[in-house]
Amino acid sequence: SDGGKLLVVPMVGSHWLSMQEVVEKLSERGHEVVVLVPEVSWQMKTTQAYKVVTHPVSQTLEELDNSF
């Protein structure tokens, strides 16, 4: 199929680990993928498979840790 554009706004948490694989596969198949991630997160790392755009958040990593 023709590649399309996809904006992904995942929430911090374990579901991103399985979602990341799907996003990478879509990118491999020609889709232009942009993933919007918070500046403070645990498991959301950058990759060359898709474009990552960060956005500021008011929460620090320590506050994020304490909330869980």
TrEMBL record:
Name of protein: UD19 glucuronosyltransferase
Keywords from the named record: Transferase
Coiled-coil spans in chain: none
InterPro entries in the record: UDP_glucos_trans (IPR002213)
Superkingdom per UniProt: Eukaryota
GO molecular function, one term: UDP-glycosyltransferase activity
Pfam family, one: UDPGT
Originating organism: Sylvia atricapilla (blackcap)
